[in-house]
TrEMBL record:
Alphabetical list of InterPro entries matching this protein: AAA+_ATPase, ABC_transporter-like_ATP-bd, ABC_transporter-like_CS, ABC_transporter_ATP-bind, P-loop_NTPase
Assigned keywords, A-Z: ATP-binding, Nucleotide-binding, Transport
Limits of the ABC transporter domain: 5-232
An example Gene Ontology molecular-function term: ATP binding
Protein source organism: Brevibacillus reuszeri
CDD domains: ABC_NrtD_SsuB_transporters
Keyword Oxidoreductase belongs to the record: no
Record's protein name: ABC transporter ATP-binding protein
Length: 258
């Protein structure tokens, strides 16, 4: 089967700061991939390249096997903070990508209203974002991203602003949504447990520039739940990822002890 997303020999630099060099990454249709790496390594840059907000200076980014220079509108993006417009109701916020696609406001609103029960939000259709909890707002943000494009969803630390209990609820909720929608998902996270729990594969980004990402398969049976964290395979993977991150953090070039 063709990859849903492929980086082939990609180079990208901001001025003389090289972020990616000869970078390859392949993501299969319907796969869930977590991306983890130190702050400032280039994770958000990677997402901006996928979304088409930035272009590679060398190499190609392929969507569905095709090189696609204009990738805007081909991917759904869920940011760290929900970025809902406070003056728009929940329906009006979630319907925005459909209206941008040229669907009439009436049809767009009907479509969103039909989706809201799946998000536990049917009673909040006409509420404003400030009336909702953080977890509820992130569910609206997810729905809005999914309505932009369900082919590839980019989740940029989607739960980092939530409290610990809501975050765990949302992790289980996202696992269920991923299975229901069959979308390809890439998620940036700084939380090793979150990276493992949700993913088929964890990609550890290290090095400046990033050349070869370290890819680790997560072979823990699905459906998973928070209890899966006690699985021996989970604990071993957590150790492995932590060792990788720690060893790169303590490189002399990063200003730590030799
Ligand atoms: N528009 C820009 N112009 C110049 N440099 C930039 C720009 N955006 C990011 N950078 C630099 O590129 C590097 C990678 O940034 P990026 O935001 O992709 O990292 P990140 O891994 O997502 O970091 P974090 O985990 O802190 O969000 C950083 O050194 C950052 O300062």
């Amino acid at each position: 089967m063709r990859d849903q997303l492929a980086f082939a020999g990609v180079r990208f630099a901001y001025g003389d700061q090289l972020i990616l060099d000869n970078f390859d990454l392949n993501v299969a249709k319907g796969e869930f991939v977590s991306l983890i790496g130190p702050s400032g390594i280039g994770k958000s840059t990677l997402f901006q390249l996928i979304a088409g907000l930035l272009q590679p200076q060398k190499g190609e980014i392929l969507l569905g096997g095709e090189p696609m220079a204009n990738r805007l509108g081909q991917v759904g993006y869920m940011p760290q903070r929900d970025l809902l417009m406070p003056w728009r109701t929940i329906v009006e916020n979630a319907a925005l990508p459909l209206e941008i696609q040229g669907i009439s406001k009436k049809q767009a609103h009907e479509r969103v209203r039909s989706e809201l029960p799946k998000y536990g939000l049917e009673e909040w259709a006409d509420a404003y974002p400030t009336q909702l909890s953080g977890g509820m707002r992130q569910r609206v943000s997810f729905l809005r991203a999914l309505l932009s494009s369900s082919n590839i969803m980019l989740l940029d630390e989607p739960f980092s602003s939530l409290d610990g209990i809501t975050r765990m609820d949302m992790q289980e909720w996202l696992m269920a949504k991923w299975q229901e929608t069959g979308s390809t998902m890439l998620m940036i996270t700084h939380d090793i447990d979150e990276a493992i729990l949700l993913a088929d594969r964890v990609v550890v980004l290290t090095g400046k520039p990033i050349t070869k990402p370290i890819e680790l398969s997560v072979s823990i049976n699905r459906p998973r739940s928070l209890v899966s964290r006690n699985h021996s395979g989970f604990l071993a993977l957590r150790e492995e990822i932590w060792d990788l991150l720690r060893s790169h953090r303590s490189q002399p070039s990063l200003g730590r002890e030799a």
